[in-house]
Design brief:
Structural class: alpha+beta
Number of strands: 7
Number of helices: 4
Radius of gyration: 15 Å
Strand content: 25-35%
Shape: globular
């Protein structure tokens, strides 16, 4: 288990209410539920792990999707709202800007965002698509 920064509390999974474990992805320590495999990303961690600022920006479009999430933020207790990256639902805290992704949603959100870039002819997904031609 990776060591957490000093003072980093153990968070409870917003879905299962069990203690999450610290896991390291792309040199970033995240909180993962051992039961449902969901991931909590503190502010800016999603960008660091996904290497994609657009993914984090789209997850933060709270005004566009005013639906409250069924749970509160595991980090600060603030209100979470649902937003979408493609058709992948993400839950973002309006207070601390952390993001919750269910199991496999990170990969699916990245896939859909890259597909959108290919269709619209922009971004890293489009450039990697061109490189494969």
């Amino acid at each position: 288990m990776p060591s957490a920064p000093a003072g980093d509390p153990v968070l409870l999974c917003p879905r299962d209410r069990v203690a999450m474990e610290k896991v390291k992805r792309a040199e970033v320590v995240l909180d993962e539920c051992g039961r449902c495999k969901g991931l909590w990303f503190d502010h800016r961690e999603l960008k660091a792990v996904a290497h994609d600022s657009d993914l984090e920006k789209r997850a933060a479009h709270l005004g566009k999707y005013p639906l409250k999430s069924p749970f509160s933020c595991p980090r600060c207790g603030g209100t979470c709202y649902q937003s979408f990256v493609g058709d992948v639902e993400v839950d973002t805290c309006a207070s601390c800007h952390g993001v919750w992704l269910d199991a496999n949603e990170l990969e699916e959100a990245k896939r859909q965002l890259d597909a959108d870039r290919i269709i619209h002819g922009s971004g890293a997904g489009f450039l990697s698509f061109l490189a494969r031609l």
